[in-house]
Amino acid sequence: MSIYTTNGDKGTTNLVRTKNVSKSDDRIQLVGTIDELTSHLGLIKTMMDKAEDIHFLEDIQKNLNTIVSGVADPFNREFRTEDDQTGQLEDEIDRLDGLFSCPKEENILPGSSRLSAELDIARAVARRAERDLAAVSVKFGADNGAKKYMNRLSDYLYIMARYTETTEQPVQNQEESRPSGGKEAEPVAAVQTPATSEAVIQEVLKRMGIQGRITLDSAKRLIDKIEQEAARRGKKAVIAVCGPDGNPIAVHVMDGAFLVSFDVATKKAYTAVAVKMSTKELSILAQPGGTFYGVDKMDGGRIVIFGGGVPLKVGDTIIGGLGISGGTGEEDHSLAEYALSVLNEVL
């Protein structure tokens, strides 16, 4: 079967209930813009590491396909966009907004990192798609749920871009800027050395009363945030926090969690401080032929190689370990990454 049909050679195409529609028609423009947006989201997925974020973007792509189907067949109620789909975007916007202080849009210059720049491009295309949808609505009518969804989608992409800027490395200039006279510019300020940074961190820890280890109160606050996020994701987990010596500080069991998860979570926390890396990283190094192959047979079985354990750090100082057990290794690790993103809030 040939990829080309020649049916559109005269500048027309078909919708489900309308034949020979000009390709300049507002509905066709909208379909093309959404196709462009979906392709940008596909590129963004290839740049993301977290499975949860990728799945969320895939759900958005599926919802966009539904909107396109509704444009082509507006009387088919199967292609309506429901409020709960918009609600999922709102929940994610609220979650991200709670993780950092989002700057105002007028103060943003896109391009501080590759991923955030791609998200900003997708945001701009999403807004164009929203405008195209408004034009279609005026002439032909449009699903109100789709209009709400497209409005919220650009908000989500905006805040996701800003959040990414807080976690991604900024784009660095390839050359140092020079003054007009051609001479090397003098450095404006000295760069803080790692040794100085660590000294400052240790002083901050001392003033906070942490003394190089996470406190029980901080562990409780961290566990509380993780539990709320786990409940939002529909997960029932055991959450364990240990000190830098590997001894448990607090263990919390959510209602309905597996009995075995208690032992696994405490071992994940212990492992994270024992090997000074996440158990997800360790699981890769513990494969046959890897640097840590067989490590899970050592230390009386206290070492585990399932995702979900991470060291808790302030600067380069390990102040404790966190272990989460209740889902797959990827799901537990994703919750642990969330915990790291809110760690400074609870200390």
TrEMBL record:
Q: Where is the composition biased (Basic and acidic residues)?
A: 175-186
Which reaction is the catalytic activity of this chain? Answer: 2 cob(II)yrinate a,c diamide + reduced [electron-transfer flavoprotein] + 2 ATP = 2 adenosylcob(III)yrinate a,c-diamide + 2 triphosphate + oxidized [electron-transfer flavoprotein] + 3 H(+); 2 cob(II)alamin + reduced [electron-transfer flavoprotein] + 2 ATP = 2 adenosylcob(III)alamin + 2 triphosphate + oxidized [electron-transfer flavoprotein] + 3 H(+)
Q: Where is the signal peptide?
A: none
The protein in question is named: Corrinoid adenosyltransferase
Provide the Cobalamin adenosyltransferase-like domain boundaries. 3-163
Entry-linked NCBIfam families: PduO_Nterm (TIGR00636)
Q: Where is this region: Disordered?
A: 167-191
Please provide the record's keywords in A-Z order.
ATP-binding, Cobalamin biosynthesis, Nucleotide-binding, Transferase
GO MF term set: corrinoid adenosyltransferase activity
Native species:
Blautia intestinihominis
Q: Which pathway does the database say it acts in?
A: Cofactor biosynthesis; adenosylcobalamin biosynthesis; adenosylcobalamin from cob(II)yrinate a,c-diamide: step 2/7
EC number(s) given by UniProt: 2.5.1.17
Q: Which InterPro entries match?
A: CblAdoTrfase-like, CblAdoTrfase-like_sf, PduO-typ, PduO/GlcC-like, PduO/GlcC-like_sf
Pfam families reported for this sequence: Cob_adeno_trans (PF01923), HbpS-like (PF03928)
